[in-house]
Specification:
The structure holds two protein chains of two kinds. Chain A is of the alpha/beta class. Helices cover 48% and strands 18% of the residues of chain A. In chain A, strands 2-1-3-4-5 form a five-stranded parallel beta sheet, sandwiched between helices. Classes of the chains: A alpha/beta, B alpha/beta.
Chain lengths: 131, 848
């Protein structure tokens, strides 16, 4: 089963996301800060990361850069700020998609599926074993 | 070891300014120390008030068990006087000297018990608070608003062998309070919190220090004043000191300052610039003396006048001075005879004003540098004119007589020259008129007595006619020229004096003196009763209304037309002077000064504009921050709502009832949050644009609090409310107050961890009613507290933030005339205190 890491400090969003993901059969890990997020990602190896930009402490962009340092896991950014500059910076730092708050749950789930789908082929390549 | 009989015991008292400073602790500590040194010490009565450190000091000291009494059904414990007397220790520790014993005890007051112990030769160490002293009862009542019931007569405390002040700064005391070291947090209600305000504590502490230093009487005056009893101001001295620029004036100024300070009066220094050109010393010295004067708190006045003594008296009367300080005369005896002593003239004219003549210290260099008075003769001075006439009337006959006797040896030319000489002398002394009279008189006398035919005005010889006529013309010319010379000098002197006055005013303008100061300066310069600046306010349909912008001296006229002198300063600005009509010679000066004033007023207007421009810029910045914050703060709850509702609505997923309920709860909460935020934004916008209209009326606190909490939704369920139903109503705008309380509670709920309580309580205090919102969260550092009132001071957009709540609360309270302060909750946390006026209270005038 695919595993999703949700990094957000807004209780309402986290609960809603968590309920929806679980209802669709995903496994869910939660983190409330950037540091926690990086830590969880390293330990749990999620298949996708949903990351809020407005985190306390570590900046969302830093988290993206931190993740991209060692993994190509699909990252979907959530943010309430409408700043174009922010969007561009986050995408350039390595995020795969940007969803503005408020968002519809159905749309987010669809984007999540797309992101996971895009990442999957790389993992499904036949592994050539050589003697 | 028993106490020696026959001698009276000695009393030692620990005096404190407020509860909690450590008196009981000190008393017990002394008890222990003396016991260690071998004395026999018992604790007759001591209370630890639940304070740990005090209890510690009690330790293993021997305690005489207290006496139990029942009074009106309740149990009480009092000191057991009989037991202590029976025990006969050397030293007894008795806490709270001012305590009133329960009825049924031997004496009514504990100090009487202590007297009994002392009479038996037992030493006593006791404690008392400053507010218990009888003589200070009314003062303390005024300071703290709490009437003290328990009092101790002063003589009891004064008779103590040793009174030791247990002192603690108000800040330290409040810290102790904040740490819960004095009272347990639950016990601190509005009244107690109010008692421990820094202002109260500071005042009480000062009072204690002063009482101990035995200076209560005069210092008490000060307290009575500060608390609203104003002195009639005749009791205060207003001291006028003559600033002459002469060396030694510094000494005068200092003496004058001391005289003024004795009654906390005021000092005014006057420099008279004589318009006769009579100088006393270099202008630099005057400036230096002016600086000294102002340093010592005095005001400087520059006046132009011909007679120094008259000018001094005029200024003294205008300023309502009670004393004039002069230096002893520096003039020589001859000078004093011919010109009169300024001092004697001042004394003669002073009337009810006291005149102090201070002998100046004379240093070596002063004796050498005594200023030389240039004797400039002014033709217009009446005194001189009188001298001139006298000289003429006396001189002519005398000279004629003398010359007549010498007729054999002296001929006409010599006679005429001598008459000419007399005429010139008279011109020098008394001016043109007596001189001309002398000349003509001389002509006639010469004609009569010294030309052929003698004793007859007819003239025989043509040559003689020529001589006489030439004499008349020449002498007349000389007289007129000498007079004109004198007047030119006078004019030059006046011009210089005017220039000095204007330079002084320009200096004041340059130093950006406030408008009232300038107006006062103008009044003094011209010696007017009142100087005022009127501004015209445009009222559509009429000519406009005149409003007084600044005034100095006596009461201003009703409108500019009623004044003696008016000058236009600007388009809607008029300067008026009242008191007497203006001398023609002053017109020029007034115009010049008015011109300078106009420039200054314009400069200020531009300054104000610049200030407003920067305010607008600041407001723009705020709007920028507002927009930024809005974009995040509004979207966040919306995101929660959208996420929840879109989750519920999607097809294909069946939610459990619990999950459905959860989503619904989130929707409701986030909607409430959004609603609150929108309200706040609208409020902030109203406050910023000054559009807040308050409808003040009597408001009951409990109703407002309940409504406010209801509006906050389910979050507010954990708030406890402690508001008495019978609390008097306050003056407030109901709707605004509700917003304020809602914001404060919202704040507290955000700051405090979910498992800690949030309380709203209200209580009466002397100044009105305090509403306290108490949280037990992490609290806020005192340095950061002011910042909390700034809107949107947070830069990151994480968390729920405290962006607007406090800013709005303060804005609304300001509009209602109430105030808010932030305090520490004892034991940790933040308490927001809103102070409101009771609806039956009158606003104290002059407070703040």
């Amino acid at each position: 089963m695919a595993r999703v890491l949700v990094v957000d400090d807004e209780e309402a969003i986290v609960r809603a996301l968590s309920a929806n993901l679980k209802a669709r059969g995903y496994e869910v890990d939660l983190a409330a800060t950037g540091e926690q997020g990086l830590d969880m990602a390293a330990r749990r190896h999620p298949d996708a990361v949903i990351l809020d930009l407005g985190l306390p402490g570590m900046d969302g962009q830093e988290v993206v850069r931190g993740l991209r340092g060692w993994t190509r896991v699909p990252i979907i950014i959530l943010s309430a700020r409408a700043d174009e500059g922010e969007k561009v910076a986050a995408l350039d730092a390595g995020a795969d998609d940007y969803v503005a708050k408020p968002f519809g749950m159905v749309e987010l789930m669809a984007r999540l599926r797309a992101a996971v789908r895009r990442a999957a082929p790389a993992e499904e390549q036949p592994r050539v074993e050589t003697e | 070891m028993a106490a020696p009989a026959g001698r009276r015991g000695s009393l030692r008292i620990y005096l404190g300014a407020a509860p909690g400073v450590g008196k009981t602790f000190a008393m017990l500590n002394e008890g222990r120390r003396r016991r260690e040194r071998g004395s026999d010490v018992v604790v007759a009565y001591a209370v630890s008030h639940g304070r740990a450190k005090t209890a510690e000091q009690l330790g293993d000291l021997e305690v005489v068990p207290r006496r139990r009494l029942v009074h009106q059904g309740a149990d009480f414990e009092e000191m057991d006087l009989t037991a202590v007397l029976a025990r006969r220790p050397e030293i007894a520790l008795v806490d709270e000297l001012a305590h009133t014993n329960v009825p049924g005890s031997r004496h009514e007051k504990r100090w009487e018990d202590v007297e009994a112990l002392l009479a038996e030769g037992i030493d006593v160490v006791s404690t008392v608070n400053i507010q218990h002293l009888e003589s200070l009862n009314d003062v303390v009542d005024r300071i703290t608003g709490v009437r003290q019931r328990e009092t101790v007569p002063d003589h009891v405390v004064r008779s103590a062998e040793q009174v030791e002040l247990v002192d603690m700064t108000p800040e330290a005391l409040r810290r102790r309070m904040a740490h819960g070291n004095i009272y347990a947090p639950e016990k601190i209600d509005a009244a107690l919190g109010n008692y421990f305000r820094a202002g109260n504590l500071g005042a009480l502490r000062e009072l204690a220090l002063l009482w101990v230093a035995d200076r209560v009487d005069d210092a008490l005056e000060e307290y009575r004043e500060r608390h609203g009893i104003t002195d009639t101001w005749e009791l205060r001295e207003r001291v006028l000191v003559a600033v002459t620029g002469a060396p030694g004036t510094e000494h005068l100024i200092r003496r004058a300052s001391r005289i003024a300070q004795r009654t906390r009066g005021e000092m005014i220094g006057v420099h008279v610039t004589a318009d006769s050109g009579l100088t006393s010393a270099a202008g630099d010295l005057v400036q230096a003396q002016r600086r000294l004067l102002e340093e010592l708190g005095g005001e400087f006045r520059e006046v132009v006048a011909s007679d120094v003594s008259v000018a001094l008296i005029d200024v003294a009367r205008a300023e309502n001075a009670t004393q004039i300080v002069l230096g002893a005369s520096r003039r020589s005896r001859l000078q004093r005879l011919t010109q009169g002593s300024i001092i004697s003239r001042v004394i003669a004219r002073a009337g009810p004003i006291d005149v102090h003549v201070i002998s100046a210290e004379s240093t070596e260099e002063e004796r050498q540098a005594l200023p030389l008075r240039r004797r400039v003769l002014t033709p217009v001075s009446p005194a001189r004119q009188a001298w001139g006439w006298g000289l003429a009337v006396a001189g002519l006959p005398l000279m004629t007589l003398a010359l007549a006797n010498l007729r054999q040896d002296v001929h006409l030319p010599t006679v005429l020259l001598l008459y000419l000489g007399l005429g010139m002398t008279v011109a020098l002394v008394g001016g043109a008129f007596p001189a001309l009279a002398t000349v003509v008189g001389g002509f006639l006398l010469a004609d009569y007595y010294f030309t052929e035919p003698l004793y007859d005005l007819k003239i025989g010889n043509t040559e003689v006619v020529v001589s006489l006529v030439v004499y008349l013309l020449a002498a007349g010319l000389v007289a007129v020229l000498v007079d004109r010379l004198g007047r030119t000098r006078l004019q030059a002197g006046r011009s210089r004096a005017e220039a000095e006055a204007m330079a002084a005013l320009a200096g004041s303008l340059a130093e950006a003196e406030a408008l009232p100061g300038l107006v006062a300066h103008l009044r003094a310069t011209f010696g007017m009763r009142n100087a005022a600046l009127f501004r015209r306010e445009h009222v559509p349909g009429t000519d406009g209304r005149w409003l007084v912008e600044a005034t100095a001296g006596g009461p201003p006229p009703v409108e500019p037309r009623a004044a003696d002198v008016t000058r236009d300063i600007g388009p809607d600005l008029v300067l008026t002077l009242s008191g007497r009509p203006l001398q023609a010679a002053d017109e020029g000066v007034l115009s010049a000064l008015a011109g300078q004033l106009a420039t200054a007023v314009e400069a200020r207007r531009l300054q104000a504009q610049a200030g407003r421009a920067s305010e607008l810029a600041a407001a723009n910045d705020l709007r920028g921050a507002l927009l930024q914050a809005v974009s995040h703060d509004l979207r966040t709850p919306l995101a929660g709502i959208k996420a929840s509702i879109s989750s519920l609505r999607q097809r294909g997923i069946t939610w459990t009832p619990e999950q459905v309920a959860e989503f619904q709860r989130i929707i409701e909460e986030e909607t409430d949050r959004l609603d609150n935020l929108v309200e706040n934004l609208l409020d902030m916008s109203r406050l910023q644009s000054g559009a807040v209209r308050t409808q003040l009326g009597p408001v009951t606190i409990d109703g407002v609090v309940l409504t406010a909490l209801a509006g906050l939704g389910p979050r507010a369920e954990r708030v406890t409310v402690d508001v008495a139903e019978d609390l008097p109503p306050v003056v407030a705008d109901r709707a605004l107050l509700e917003r304020v309380i809602a914001n404060l509670v919202d704040n507290a709920l955000k700051l405090a961890p979910p498992d800690t309580p949030v309380r709203v309580e209200a209580g009466e205090v002397p100044e009105g009613i305090d509403v306290r919102v108490v949280d037990r969260g992490p609290g806020v550092d005192p340095h950061d507290r002011d910042q909390l009132f700034e809107p949107f001071q947070r830069t990151t957009d994480h968390g729920t933030g405290v962006g607007l709540g406090l800013a709005i609360a303060r804005g609304f309270l300001d509009a209602m005339g109430a105030e808010i302060v932030l305090e520490d909750t004892p034991g940790g946390g933040l308490t927001a205190v809103v102070r409101l006026r009771r609806s039956d209270q009158r606003v104290p005038v002059g407070r703040r």
